[in-house]
Design brief:
13 helices, D-Maltodextrin-Binding Protein, domain 2, single chain, seven-stranded mixed sheet, two-stranded antiparallel sheet
Length: 329
């Protein structure tokens, strides 16, 4: 069978479609996010920025509210320092009690709003953290051709001729993946597959079976997954002369074979006989992660993030302490 390309059509004719074939890419499977990032996954980065801005604004507002503007000596002794204001805001955000001024209505309104904001942030963070610690989080998955083009990842194949269909395309993402394609031998493809971080050309038949890919072995097949869509699809047909008198009969026979399901049966038998079953099974089930059954039990690794924050805080405190001692000498 031949793809329905234009040049052969200038001097010959195509029969009815025998089968359909699609070209897609095998990309690396997303990995589990490291445990040290667990405390930071409860909120998205825009939400973290909003929380930090609220925290800084609250510190400034609390410090200004605790600053006496009348010059009375009894109020000056109760003046809040900037560190006091920061610790007060930390207490609000972790649902802990903090001393507040109640002699001014402005302070009452300010601290009431800060208490409410801290209560909401604390509860939202607790709920998000519980979800993150029990439901595994993975890296961003490359699912479509557009995602693959945006990643800028190199991909490899045995020949550049299968990209001829996309040469005339004006789609930006198709033009981008043509720039990142590299034609290499099968031995080199196997080496790149073991190194990771690259995509690989693969052809998928009409009924879901993948074409033989000699660069795939059992170890590599557990680290790759196919895209959810195709780079392109093409119909395959037989090529005959323009004056062939049996063209109509051949087309009728092809359609009857398609209707009977014989091609599906032969495709399954061929895949079972000639393709490595375990490798193809790994590729077909690659999007079924091992943690898809539900929540996982908490392990020591889930607390690495808390230990990381504790260690970072101790390191910063030690450096500041040494700096203070150095300044007093």
């Amino acid at each position: 069978g031949f793809y329905l390309w234009f040049k052969p059509y200038n001097f010959s004719s195509y029969t009815a479609t025998i089968s359909r074939s699609g070209v897609t890419v095998l990309v690396p499977k997303p990995k589990l996010l490291p445990h040290w990032r667990t405390p930071f996954l409860s909120f998205s980065w825009p939400l973290w920025i909003a929380v930090m801005v609220t925290f800084l604004v609250g510190i400034i507002a609390t410090w200004l509210a605790g600053t006496p503007w009348t010059g009375r000596s009894d109020l000056i002794s109760e003046q809040l320092t900037l560190s006091d204001a920061a610790l007060m805001m930390v207490g609000f955000f972790v649902a802990q009690s903090s001393p507040i001024r109640t002699d001014l209505w402005s302070c009452v309104c300010l601290f009431a709003s800060l208490l409410l904001a801290g209560f909401m942030v604390s509860n939202l963070y607790s709920g998000g953290l519980a979800s993150v610690m029990t439901v595994p989080k993975y890296e961003k998955s490359i699912d479509t051709v557009v995602d693959f083009a945006a990643s800028g990842m190199k991909w490899f194949g045995p020949s550049p001729f299968f990209l001829m269909t996309d040469r005339s395309s004006n789609q930006p993402y198709l033009q981008e993946i043509q720039k990142t394609f590299r034609s290499v031998r099968l031995e080199e493809m196997n080496q790149y597959a073991h190194m990771g971080g690259s995509g690989f050309f693969v052809e998928q038949a009409q009924h879901g079976n993948f074409a033989p890919s000699n660069f795939l072995d059992r170890q590599v097949s557990t680290t790759l997954q196919p895209l959810k869509d195709y780079v392109y699809t093409q119909n395959c047909a037989a090529l005959i002369t323009n004056t062939n008198p049996l063209r109509s009969n051949l087309n009728e026979y092809i359609l009857r074979v398609q209707q009977s399901g014989l091609l599906y049966h032969l495709g399954i038998r061929t895949a079972i006989r000639y393709l490595p079953t375990d490798v193809m099974r790994n590729i077909e089930r690659s999007r079924m992660h091992q943690h898809d059954d539900g929540a996982v039990r908490l392990e020591l690794g889930h607390f690495f993030g808390a230990f990381f924050i504790l260690g970072y805080g101790l390191l910063c405190a030690s450096l500041v302490f040494v700096g203070e001692l150095w300044g007093t000498v």
